[in-house]
Amino acid sequence: MTMSSKFFTVLKRAAFLAIACGLPFTTISRAQTSSSSYNPQYNTGPYDTQSYNNHQPPRYTGHSWMDHWVIEGGGGVTPPAGSTQNWANVGWNVLLGTGYKFNDRLSVLAEWNFNDLGVPHSLANVIAGVPDGSEHLWTADVNPKYNVLRHARTNVYVIGGGGFSRALVNYNAPVVFACFDYYFGPYPCSGYITVAKTSSNQGNIDIGGGGEWHVSQYERGSLFLEVRYLHMFTPDNGLPPGGGAVLIPVTFGFRW
What we know:
By secondary structure, the protein is an alpha+beta fold.
């Protein structure tokens, strides 16, 4: 065999080998190209462009058992209602509470509500002969809360229940007494002393409603504004706050 014949034989075998090795790679490449091809009719996944652009951030719903516990605090104004207006002036309130949230709608809250109102001057003068008086009315209640309407970041709810209440009335008289300063010496001071007090313990019921606004869709905290009807079964003894005292606490606060 001549040198040229050997060269053509080697070249021919190399060509067959290249074809044999290249065929599988060509098939694999075509399969990959086919599998990565784009078909619009199957664009229904979670990353669909139109769906992604219209996607709204999810509302926070909690992710652990600790998120079921509720803590709240607030304050506001407390006007008396009905015949209680004859026994008390408009005052203010403080609300503190904790509870358990069973789901997105139902919660049960244990709440302490303190109301400070004034005794009308004429009434304080008749009863105790003093020009001033104060009424401290507080309740300790168990109140179920139910979200009637729910939106992206707002709730409208009703709340109500009952428990124990205490009414403490102080009658105060102004006094003037001497104070002393190291540099200026004695000088007159004024203040009040309690000359008489009455108290009573009784049950109470309350019912009301309000609205919550979630500060962020990613957090559980919310601002709330609510109004309640509070009825205390106080005795009808001719003394403040009167028999069956009725208050309308209006409270603004934060619930977490």
